[in-house]
Amino acid sequence: MKQPIPPFSHGPIRLRLLQEDDLPATLEWRNRDGARQQFFSGELISWDHHVAWFTRYADKNDDFVFIAEELESGQRIGQVSLYDVNLAHADAEVGRFIVAPEFAGRGLMRAAIEALSLLAATSLGLHRLRLEVKASNSRAYQLYESLRFEVTERSDSVIHMERKLADGP
Ligand SMILES: CC(C)(COP(=O)(O)OP(=O)(O)OC[C@H]1O[C@@H](n2cnc3c(N)ncnc32)[C@H](O)[C@@H]1OP(=O)(O)O)[C@@H](O)C(=O)NCCC(=O)NCCS
């Protein structure tokens, strides 16, 4: 069973756990041309596949997908997530970042990832976050670099990055 993480607000963003009634929106964002190709499995996802994924996800306690909402309006601005959470090692992977197209390029996903990092440190006690990004995804790479993620490994196709959190070693 998934541990409930209470909603977390920081700056212009409120993060709350994904719920079943968010699934139509998150499927649309994920399948959008231009977005889906940035993921390692870039194929179109069907509704049945998406719902089956959510059912498995709901039982996992190391995987947390958040809807980022604009605090002021309550509108969904995108999705961010923490997975492979290892409390003993105080680390996790972050990713599955997708912006709702109407909010793209407004600096809100930067704020959402910053809020996620703060939540990881303060609510879960994590010290280190890892991520993987396609080497061709320069927009996302620049964003992560400016959020103090550092390259740990690089190949022609994928870049591995890591960020130490404020209270970490
Ligand atoms: C990656 C993504 C979530 C960023 O969302 P966004 O709304 O563009 O993010 P922001 O507005 O917060 O932009 C933050 C940074 O992104 C980068 N960026 C945004 N638009 C850009 C553009 N047109 N060209 C290059 N870099 C850009 C910049 O570094 C920007 O920093 P700045 O504020 O100093 O300009 C969004 O582009 C997206 O959903 N992409 C498709 C899915 C994806 O690639 N996910 C990540 C997989 S690893």
Automatic annotation (TrEMBL):
Signal sequence region: none
UniProt xrefs under Gene3D superfamilies: 3.40.630.30
Sections of the chain in a coiled coil: none
Any Pfam family hit: Acetyltransf_3
Residues annotated as domain N-acetyltransferase: 13-166
Spans through the membrane: none
Entry protein name: GNAT family N-acetyltransferase
Taxonomic lineage from the root: Bacteria, Pseudomonadati, Pseudomonadota, Gammaproteobacteria, Lysobacterales
